[in-house]
């Protein structure tokens, strides 16, 4: 299922690894098909600088593969990226878990792509209380294999 309402945001994206809040309760349920990041992102680059005489500049129009996901409290342009509550390694897979406590700000996902700062972002459903991601440690840097979010009824 493709992301609906995706827009481009030109900003650096990275996943920080650290510890934060508390774990979700046992009643957390996965959201049905939460969202799926586009597997690749077509990006057009156009040089803006003037160049010295005799130089010619050309832009590019390339497709970049999905490499990571990040989660934000509020729209990603506010730069309030969440850090995982927990990370652990099982074999060649890195597992990360984020917890989203109740907030006046809606939580967002940012799909990040290799070799570009362009990202696809989308607000998560207000019932989402956390997300998990699996990264392939056979790639350098590790690449996201899958991610899913959980939701519970909030009071």
Explain this structure:
By secondary structure, this protein is mostly beta strands. 0% of the residues lie in helices and 45% in strands. The strands form two sheets. A five-stranded antiparallel β-sheet has the order 1-8-7-4-3, with no helix packed on it. Strands 2-10-9-6-5 form a five-stranded antiparallel β-sheet, with no helix packed on it. The two termini are 29 Å apart. Residues 1-34 have low confidence and may be disordered.
Q: Can you list the strand order of the major beta sheet?
A: 1-8-7-4-3
Low-confidence stretches: 1-34
Tell me the fraction of residues in β-strands, as a range: 35-45%
**Amino- and carboxy-terminal Cα gap:** 29 Å
Structural class: mainly beta
From the spread of the alpha carbons, the general shape counts as globular
Counting DSSP H or I runs of 4 or more residues, the number of helices is 0
- Using only C-alpha atoms, the radius of gyration works out to 17 Å
Largest sheet: 5 strands, antiparallel
- Element pattern in H and E: EEEEEEEEEE
What is the average per-residue confidence, as pLDDT, rounded to a whole number?
79
The quaternary state of the protein chains shown equals: single chain
* Total E-strand runs: 10
Helix share bin: under 10%
Task: Give a nutshell description of this structure.
With 155 residues, the protein is mostly beta strands. The chain contains no helices and ten strands. The radius of gyration is 17 Å and the shape is globular.
């Amino acid at each position: 299922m493709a992301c609906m309402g995706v827009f481009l945001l030109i900003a650096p994206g990275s996943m920080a690894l650290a510890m934060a809040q508390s774990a979700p309760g046992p009643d957390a349920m996965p959201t049905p098909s939460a969202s799926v990041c586009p597997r690749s992102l077509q990006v057009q680059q156009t040089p803006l600088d003037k160049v010295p005489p005799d130089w010619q500049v050309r832009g590019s129009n390339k497709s970049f593969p999905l490499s990571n996901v990040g989660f934000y409290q509020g729209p990603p342009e506010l730069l309030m990226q969440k850090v995982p509550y927990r990370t652990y390694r099982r074999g060649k897979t890195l597992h990360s878990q984020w917890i989203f406590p109740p907030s006046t700000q809606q939580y967002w996902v940012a799909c990040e792509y290799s070799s570009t700062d362009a990202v696809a972002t989308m607000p998560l459903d207000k019932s989402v209380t956390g997300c998990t991601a699996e990264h392939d440690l056979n790639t350098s840097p590790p690449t996201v294999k899958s991610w899913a979010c959980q939701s519970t009824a909030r009071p």
